[in-house]
Design goal:
By secondary structure, the chain is of the alpha+beta class. Helices cover 40% and strands 22% of the residues.
């Protein structure tokens, strides 16, 4: 008999409730409900409207109930680093801050005054990004933190809203830069240095933890039985990597979307001076594996350009932007996607033009040239990142798996294969929801292992292979690009 599961997949642009069905060694998914998300600007500050998101989840759960299926469980996943503070009454303490808010710069300075960067990296193995939870908490007023009973990361907060059980699942906890992957606990050294109360941090649980039944009042409201609530991999990238349809070794992954996350699955943390200087990060995946990766600003740059052009009256689909990029002249201008200016929103074309002017390159001539510049630069950054990963691990990477919404960007996928000079396999697009669901299936004993789950993905989806082309051109461009990184 088919088994059904629900995945609440929360992204920075939208949220979805996904129905997953496991049947005879194959998995299928269906979007039951989609709802918009995005930072809300209030008095110049960026917040998340978590109450509205939870109401939308309830609307989705009502649609699930209307299907009259026997649903086994539900789990939520989200982007990393952002959090919800819960007070003594179990209620959300507003506001819920967005990681793109400028307050993170103040937080980074506050942390720097109390603990040095080598200590932070040796404790956590996480690359410096001013948006990390450690810096966000350091920007909080002390009196607000004193009133907080619990700190829950976003995906874990939604599991709490569903179950009443407050746990921070390990994959999401590892993004905070307050988790120590060697002791497998919150870092007492960092909490003490920053005067953060350890009891405020909800306990850490492994990926695939059964939290208990859905709260009775919620189940009654939406018309579902009290199905099991599972903490699968609560971090969207952790879930996506769990569903990468890979087998064997010598493969890397690119989780391609608003962010590009490029890395390898590794048995233990790599925490040394070289990893720190190359800005690699050790996030935790299913089964306590390590996602040794680099966070790169990804299709966010294209999304922000698209929004800017829409404000000017030019509305493009992503398919049109793909076509325009493919027909633009190659390698006219390149940017460093890691430049801090590309993290914040608003007028992205102007920022790209300024970067080109600052580095003595032509400003892109038209919208297609802008997108081509972004795609080529991202592909070259993937190359630079994987070459450094090979040096760090001593492993030669022979294949790249591209998953997530960005795996539909065929021009970018081809550029990635060209730049890396290895085959790139694209798909599935919905790896986050798939990983979320498959880990629920493992937690409930419906699948025996992660290897079995990945076999289910391979049996269920056709992958598109991109073979490398134009090696000499891309080698020349890579030499130019490396100068922009220094």
């Amino acid at each position: 008999m088919p088994t059904h599961y629900l995945a609440c997949d929360l992204g920075a642009d939208s949220g979805r409730l996904i129905l997953g069905t496991l049947d005879n060694g194959k998995i299928s998914i269906e979007e039951l409900h989609r709802f918009p998300n995005g930072p809300v600007k209030t008095s110049g500050a960026l917040h998340w409207n978590v109450d509205a998101l939870f109401n939308e989840l309830k609307n989705g759960l009502k649609k699930a109930a209307a299907r009259n299926l026997s649903i086994a469980s539900i789990s939520s996943d989200s982007w990393g680093v952002d959090y919800v503070l819960i007070d003594e009454r179990g209620l959300i303490m507003q506001p819920v801050w967005c990681y793109r808010d400028s307050r993170t710069a103040v937080g980074a300075e506050n942390v720097k005054a109390k603990v040095d960067w080598p200590t932070i990296f040796s404790e956590t193995g996480i690359q410096f990004m001013a948006l990390n939870t450690i810096y966000q908490l350091a920007a909080e007023p002390p009196e607000r933190l004193a009133r907080a009973k619990q700190m829950l990361l976003i995906g874990n907060a939604f599991n709490y809203f569903c179950s009443g059980v407050a746990k921070n699942e390990i994959s999401l906890a590892s993004t905070t830069q307050l988790y120590n992957p060697q002791t497998k606990t919150w870092s007492k050294k960092l909490l003490d240095a920053l005067k953060l109360r350890e009891e405020m941090f909800a306990p850490i649980c492994p990926s695939g933890t059964k939290l208990g039944p859905m709260k009775k009042n919620l189940a009654t409201e939406v018309g579902l039985p009290q199905i099991e609530v599972v903490a699968s991999c609560s971090h969207d990238t952790g879930a996506a990597v769990a569903a990468v349809p890979a087998s064997g070794e010598n493969w890397a992954y690119l989780s391609s979307g608003t962010w590009s996350l490029v890395g390898v699955e590794w048995p233990k943390p790599v925490i040394n001076d070289q990893a720190r200087s190359l800005a690699f990060t050790n996030e935790i995946g299913y089964g306590d594996s390590v996602r040794l990766l680099k966070n790169i600003v990804g299709l966010w740059i294209v999304q922000e350009c698209k929004r800017s052009w829409e404000r000017e009256g030019k509305k493009y689909s992503f398919a049109q932007l793909e076509q325009m990029a493919a027909s633009a002249p190659p390698f006219v201008s390149l940017i460093n996607p890691d430049d801090p200016r590309f993290v914040s929103p608003d007028d992205m074309p102007k920022k790209i033009a300024a970067f080109c002017e600052d580095t003595g390159q032509p400003v892109p001539a038209n919208h297609g040239a802008y997108v081509r510049c972004i795609y080529e630069s991202l592909a070259l950054f993937y190359r630079a990142t994987l070459r450094r990963l090979e040096r760090l691990t001593g492993k030669k990477i022979e294949k790249l798996h591209i998953v997530g919404g960005g795996s539909q960007a065929t021009t970018l996928n081809q550029f990635a294969a060209n730049a890396l000079k290895i085959p790139a396999l694209a798909g599935p697009t919905e790896c986050t929801a798939l990983g979320n669901i498959l880990i629920q299936a493992i937690a409930l004993g419906h699948l025996p292992s992660l290897a079995a789950a990945r076999e289910v993905v391979r049996n269920s989806f056709e992958l598109k292979t991109f073979e490398p082309q134009d090696a000499a051109q891309w080698d020349a461009a890579a030499a130019r690009f490396e100068k922009l990184l220094s």
